[in-house]
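ok, trying the design again with the full structure, not the truncated one.
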């Protein structure tokens, strides 16, 4: 991956601790592995992740994918950058589940000094079936 390198201080434990009390924790997103250009996460499907029709709400999948890509961005912020914000996202939903665990793998597509683009694939752990394909663009924030 060209551009910013993996920050060794951003570990799964760091990200899980950082999420305490946030939306990520509320949704149950858990960071498993952080590597150069790749982040692995999971989330157990909870009853309040379901839509009124009984299927997994699309926003629950997006929460997992966007949180994964956000953590990946934090782990790859260029030296001196303050933070980031999501400026665009797209999600294609291919299947659903009503129980079990979702897994997400976020992979760097572009890692520059002003923007980063991440792709994520969300799958059902039990079957390996792809539930969603996700892409987001992150704007890197620098001190003023």
């Amino acid at each position: 991956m060209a551009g910013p390198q993996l920050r060794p201080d951003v570990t799964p434990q760091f990200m899980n601790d950082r999420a305490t009390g946030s939306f990520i924790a509320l949704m149950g997103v858990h960071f498993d592995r952080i590597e150069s250009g790749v982040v692995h996460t999971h989330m157990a499907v909870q009853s309040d992740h379901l839509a009124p029709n009984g299927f997994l709400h699309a926003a629950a999948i997006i929460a997992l994918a966007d949180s994964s890509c956000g953590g990946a961005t934090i782990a790859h912020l260029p030296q001196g950058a303050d933070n980031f914000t999501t400026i665009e996202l797209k999600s294609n939903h291919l299947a659903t589940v009503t129980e079990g665990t979702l897994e997400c793998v976020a992979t760097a597509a572009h890692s520059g000094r002003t923007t980063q683009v991440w792709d994520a694939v969300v799958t059902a752990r039990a079957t390996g079936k792809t539930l969603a394909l996700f892409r987001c663009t992150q704007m890197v924030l620098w001190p003023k």
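Keeping the full-length input from now on. The beta strands are 30-35, 38-44, 83-93, 101-111, 115-124, 130-141.
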